[in-house]
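Quick one:
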Amino acid sequence: MKSLYEIVHGELLPRVEKPSRYLGSEINSVHKDLSEVDVRLCLAFPDLYDLGLSNLGLLILYHVVNSQPGVWAERAYAPGLDMEAELRRRGLPLFSLESKTPLRDFDAVGFTLQYELSYTNILNMLELGGIPLLSGERTDRDPIVIAGGPCAFNPEPLADFVDAFAIGDGEELILEIVEALRETKGLPREQRIRRISQIEGIYVPAFMPVEALADGTLVPSPGVPRIKKRVLHSLEGAPFPTAYIVPYAEQAHDRVSLEVLRGCTQACRFCQAGMTYRPVRERNLETLEKLTEEVLRRTGYDEVALSSLSTCDYSRVRELVRRTAEVAAAWGASVSLPSLRLDSFSLDLADMVQAVRKSGLTFAPEAATPKMRAVINKWISDDELLSVTRQVYERGWDLVKLYFMIGLPMETDEDVVAIAELARRVVRAGREVNPRARVNLGVSTFVPKPHTPFQWERQISIEETLYKQNLLKRNLRDAALKFGRHDANMSYLEGVFSRGDRRLARVLLNAFRRGARFDAWSEHFNLERWMDAFADEGMDPNSYLRQRALDEPLPWDHIDPLVSKRYLVEEYHRSRQWEVVRDCRYQKCHQCGVMDHVKPLCISMLSTSRQGRKLDAMQSFAFQVRRPRTGDPVQRIRFRYERVGDLRFLSHRETMNLLARALRRARIPVHYTQGFNPQPKLALGAALPVGMESTAEYGDVVLHARMQPTVFCRAVNAVLPEGLRIVDAREIPMGSDSIMSQLCAEKYRVEIGEEFMPLEKVASAVEGFKSRSEVLVEREGKGGVRTVDVRPMVKEIKVVSEDGRTEIEMFLQDYGGNKVKVHEVLSALLGVAEEESRRLKVRKLESYVKNEEGALVPPLQIACRPG
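Output:
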């Protein structure tokens, strides 16, 4: 009987769109001997791998847990719709990536709650993983389901599905959970959960009674203990994953995120993270410099993002940028600042780190009038904003991205129209100094979040959102202005779940049963499905968007972020008076409540921030980022490599990325292109189809310092994953034609299983093909569908039987200006659809070029200077 691993890799991956999502063998992924493991966790992200892999919180927890002996943390992501269909059709469970273990077989499954519209994916992953959806229906055989992350600060909509919520920082918390799981191994489920509930920062919904208000809202019963968030007291000694998982598949954010600080005290009144992640804690410069060096050495990434809620608020940010850029440049990498303030200081920083890649700068004013900026406590004058954006264009950027919100408290139509007017003024000012000046305007709908001064505010309706969006659109008629807006229906549902209570569990389950999946994706979101679910459950979603009274009990009152409700009420009143408060690190303490719980951290925050700012002010700001690898090209190496095993499921682009990162990790002196977006001078042959093995792929790389080809092979192979290997290399003349243009023929072996086609039928098909003078196929291209004769492309073909296997061996060559396509030939040969032919195990044995005499030879036979 086949194992799940064998079924996934042998039967499922050839049938899905992006098989590399499910391999689990990425660089720096962790694999352990099960005989040495007594606690197993699956860290689950309820969205596609492409989005979830770069989630820094999950990567940190993966590193923390796997650093411990006897415990193994694996990963799972929401499967694509094609993979889900295959799993359901075959009755197979959702599995972890690393070992292909069903989710139901873990001790615990931990979900990241990053955004509310991922909740149906959680239910889908539980069901596919063989875990009962409702906590109350799980038995001693089922894993403990845990969830944490930003949305855990209002856990109530998921209370029926999650056994325990982790509130706050997770680095220490997760190790205590692991220890509790180890201590209670084999005990009844309730005892295990009760033991976990004793950990500070853990909330177990089953142990917290609720009561209904007059309107039916479920809130914590009076007198229940509050769950204080966990606070990591120091980032300095906290673990950070320098062995960052390097994916084969492309990610939404394809870079290293280096967390330089955690928390923010800017006190924007709409921002939940700014309230729930206080106080600010920094890593020191020396630590960050070491982490940058180590993470680039172990990953080969070409970009480091200095990550935080507000990186420009790092106390010694000038020196941080200088040191990070110096380290990154030595690795051929760039540095980015994902979050920028609207001031000249931030622009100077951006100029330093983005001298290599000037694609555009992003700012988030959020509001366009002085009144609204005071309401949300994000102050900047129009003159400052226009001055900064003008400087952006003067310094060589063509694009400014501006983010605003509509539907904020106390907003009028004039405040909305002001967004359009301000954007037009930015373009006009920019065009005075840069004729290519453009603005991308992103406008989202304000969603009130728990534990913020605006948690009591009303959220505008779908109709109001559409009205305000159209008002903006009518006032944005300029080719240099691109207007993007959030989907009004999606913002509506986000608002419902953001401030929801336990009753929403019924709606969530109903919508899931109706087919709700990937609600954060506009192409999958269906509001009608959700409205039907609300109607079925007899609930009005609009009731969740209403204004709340300041003294009204709230569903999340039992969660304590350390910021007091008294402070939030005071800030609510200040917003009504258009009162601006400054960052407490450089002004007075605003008595938010955090000081009452972690006073030493607040004192340390104040000392670090004020001393750091003084030191940074004394530092020279003159600094120029060095371009990576700017030496002159001196050598060109042609190499042969094999792509076999699991890595046969990589696409051409994924293979290219893997090799480029390996070259950086191996410190190969690769020459880079010039310009604002330097690329390594690396070129591969024709794209190998996904799912096909090859022992004869070829590529060219240009170097700025000479290397012996044999040394090149050893260095690169030392850092390549299993399944990809440099077999041989030769130096070729610098002016040689590209490998892509030279390749013109290939030899293949195709394994035909008896279940696919009997041997007699295969032999008959081959003989029939050989006897034909013409075999026409339809090929679709840019010019439409055309007919191509593939018979002249098949120079040799025969059936080979070895070790009980039936294989077809083919020698194929380009003909008549048409490139040969092996699956096109197999489809015509065997009389099956081309998609069906991709299920076959195909291996390329050799590729060929023409030598000076016109004979076909392997590419390295005409290279010079053997290694």
